[in-house]
Amino acid sequence: MTARIAIYPGSFDPLTMGHVNIIQRSLGIFDELVVAVLNHPDKRTMFTPQERCDQIQEVFADDPRVSVDAFAGLLVDYVAQRGASAVVRGLRAVQDFEYEFQMTMMNRRLAPDIDTVFMMTDEEHFYIASRTVKEVASLDGDITGLVPPSVAAAIRKRLEEMS
Ligand code: PNS
């Protein structure tokens, strides 16, 4: 049987426990998951694409079903290039829906054979967003449990470098 490969694309700036939860849940459905970090030159990010890939790789180092890569250009082209047929996206609250719906339908227009599978995070992760984690950390708030410990350390280090 051929392996069911899915792509989990995103900015991951940085990886949160919500993302970790979606990755773990996806592995119940797919045999392999490629976490695909968007490499967008215009996007202002706290971490470079390479740093984000390394952070995710470190968290999933013990799971051979998870691989990490950076991608640029159209997501549907990347999905085809990797031999995958599905995209995984996490859904948190109602406001995510509109953005996800637009993206999914645009991707479907571009590549009708590629499906997007939406997964809900566990309820303790429902409100976590990379943007708010960075904001809390930058204001000296406690981000324990919101991101993996190695990512929390990387955020603190980057904020020190920036100050
Ligand atoms: O974590 P994010 O920032 O919500 O992820 C957005 C992402 C990377 C999934 C999206 O921006 C994307 O797929 N970018 C690649 C460009 C593309 O294919 N655009 C067409 C779909 S609208």
Structure, described:
The chain has helices at residues 17-26, 49-59, 75-81, 94-110, 130-138, 149-162; strands at 5-10, 32-38, 66-71, 86-91, 115-120. It is of the alpha/beta class and 163 residues long. It has a single domain, classed as 3-Layer(aba) Sandwich (Rossmann fold), CATH 3.40.50.620. A 5-stranded parallel beta sheet has the order 3-2-1-4-5, with helices on both faces. The longest helix is centred in the middle third of the chain and has 17 residues, at 94-110. The radius of gyration is 16 Å and the shape is globular. The mean pLDDT is 96. The structure holds 4'-phosphopantetheine. 4'-phosphopantetheine (PNS) binds at residues 9-11, 38, 74-75, 103, 106-107.
Topology:
Elements: E1 5-10, H1 17-26, E2 32-38, H2 49-59, E3 66-71, H3 75-81, E4 86-91, H4 94-110, E5 115-120, H5 130-138, H6 149-162
Parallel strand pairs: 1-2, 1-4, 2-3, 4-5
Bound molecules: 4'-phosphopantetheine.
4'-phosphopantetheine binds next to strand 1 and helix 4.
Throw out a few tags for this protein.
163 residues; alpha/beta; Rossmann fold; five-stranded parallel β-sheet; 42% helix; globular; binds 4'-phosphopantetheine
Number of domains: 1
- Kindly report the oligomeric state of this protein: single chain
Main sheet properties: 5 strands, parallel
Order of helices and strands: EHEHEHEHEHH
How many E strands? 5
